[in-house]
Structure formats: structure tokens, C-alpha cells
Amino acid sequence: MSKIIASCKDIIKTFNSGEAEVKALQGITLDVYGNELLMLVGPSGCGKTTFVSVLSGLLSFDSGVCKLMGENISAMNDDELTTFRGKNIGFVFQAFNLLPSLSAIENVALPLTVASRKRAEALALASEMLEAVGLSGKEDVKPSGLSGGEQQKVAIARALVHNPKFIICDEPTSSLDHKSGQIVMELLTKIIQEKGASMIVVTHDNRIYKYANRIVHMEDGKITKVAL
Ligand SMILES: Nc1ncnc2c1ncn2[C@@H]1O[C@H](COP(=O)(O)OP(=O)(O)OP(=O)(O)O)[C@@H](O)[C@H]1O
Ligand SMILES: [Mg+2]
Q1: Ligand 1 pocket check: which of 40, 48, 55, 224 to mutate, most ligand atoms within 8 Å of Cβ?
Q2: Which of 68, 76, 167, 175 could pair with 90 as two cysteines, CB 3.0-4.6 Å apart?
Q3: Do residues 218 and 46 lie in contact, with contact meaning Cβ atoms separated by under 8 Å?
Q4: Ligand 1 site: residues with CB under 6 angstroms?
Q5: What is the dihedral of CA 13, 14, 16, 20, to 10 degrees?
């Protein structure tokens, strides 16, 4: 069995918004292996985004243990976690989270400039990544001038530009037509193979199931099935 990249045990997460308490994660246990593409599926509201947010160190949790690359993320302080995430994790948000005042290429270069890479070098790598997702020629366009699908591709390019070992994509093909969705999945699959990265893809799109090594089904904050 190949090595474990991420390991979650008995993760519990409760949201308290006003009077209502939402038990978003009710004891999640899962290992993610090196070089695998794992898909996370389940009905709206079952906890998928909450789970991948915990898995990437973006969201704290009530109890349980989450280790990434063997390190217990609960033991890291905010600065350590930010540095760790910047080095090891790429995240494609469900809502894209592009910065509106930056052009496409500046958005993609952001993780590199945050990691103190020289601006020219960062822009060159960002340009290559934009080309890889099929957005050559859109480098200088701001998000408001891009279609939803194009914004999604910028978000994907940004998540991959710093060569992270663990890539998390929350609905990466939701705004893409069938053909663009397949192109993006081919690209993600190629990256896993070439760079030896692992990936979790949250999706509702059963047309991309064929790219998965394993499919994890969630319902009501729990894993109900893991299919090969
Ligand atoms: N910040 C928050 N505050 C309060 N409740 C939240 C918060 N984030 C999520 N929830 C609740 O937690 C549950 C799980 O939400 P989550 O976003 O993880 O679902 P999801 O599976 O990603 O759904 P979708 O497929 O619609 O994206 C839902 O009941 C949601 O309303
Ligand atoms: Mg979600």
C-alpha cells in the first residue's frame, strides 16, 4: 500500500449559528494515499465542504485527529499552519475566491508571490499554468470579465501553480461544460501522475467518476460507503 498523505480519525465538527446547532461532521475517519484521486460525493448539506476544509487546515474542528504528511495540524499555530498550507496544499474553492482587483495571471501567481518567489518568475509559471488550463490570451483579464467556467479554470490554475503534494478541489467542474470538464479532469489526472500528488475532488458530476481511484460517499456528516 502506498504511503498515507492525509489521515483523519473520528473528526467531529459542530456549527453554532444563532440558536441552531448543526452537526456537520459526525465522526469521520479516512486515509488518503499517495498518488490517488479520491472523489467525495453526497447530497447537498451532507458536510463535504466542511470535511475538505478541515482536511486542508482551513477549518478547526471539535474533536478527532487530522494528520497531513504525518503532521498533526491541531498542534500547529496559525503561522505554522499558513506556511504548511502554502507549501503543501492547493485548494480550489467551491466559490472560486478569486481576487477581483487582480488579473487572471496575477491571481494564479498569488501563491508564488506569497511564498516570496520573484515576480517575473511567478508570472512566468502562472502563464504556463494558464496555458495548461486553456486560458492563453486571458492573462490580463480580471475575474469580472471572465465567464464562470473561465473563473473556475483560473482557480484551478492557482491551486496547482506551486506544485502542492495535496490538492483539494471543491466542485471543480460545476461551472464547466462537458468538454471543458473532461479537459480539466485530464489535466488533474496528469498532474497526479507526473508530480506524484494526491487529490480529493468533491463533485456532483457523475460524468467525471471515471477519473476516480476511490469514491467516498457521505450522508449526514458521516461516510456511508467507500467504493473502488
Ligand atoms: N459556517 C457555517 N455556519 C453554520 N452552519 C454551517 C456553516 N458551514 C456549513 N454549515 C452547515 O453544515 C452542513 C454541511 O455544510 P457543507 O457546506 O459542508 O455541505 P456540502 O456537502 O458541501 O453541501 P453542497 O453540496 O451544497 O456544497 C450544512 O447543514 C450547512 O448548513
Ligand atoms: Mg459544498
Answers
A1: 48
A2: 167
A3: yes
A4: 15, 17, 22, 24, 44-50, 94
A5: 150
Helix, coil or strand: residue 140: coil
Q: Where are the domains of the chain?
A: 4-227
pLDDT score at 212? 95
For 195, phi then psi, to 5°, come to: -100, -5
Q: What are the tens digits of pLDDT across the range 16-63?
A: 988 889 999 999 999 999 999 999 999 999 999 999 999 999 999 999
Q: Which of 202, 205, 114 is nearest to 158 (CA)?
A: 114
Rounded Cα gap, residues 3 and 187, in angstroms: 23
pLDDT digits (tens, 9 = 90+) for 141-196: 999 999 988 998 999 999 999 999 999 999 988 888 888 888 889 888 988 888 88
Question: Check: CATH 1.10.260.40 for 4-227?
Answer: no
Give the pLDDT confidence of 127-143 residue by residue, as tens digits.
999 998 889 999 999 99
Q: Of all protein residues, whose CA lies closest to atom 7 belonging to ligand 1?
A: 15
Residue 126 phi/psi, 5° resolution? -65, -40
The widest CA-to-CA distance across the chain, in whole angstroms, is 51
Type of residue found at 172: P
Work out which ligand 1 atom sits closest to the CA atom of 204: 25
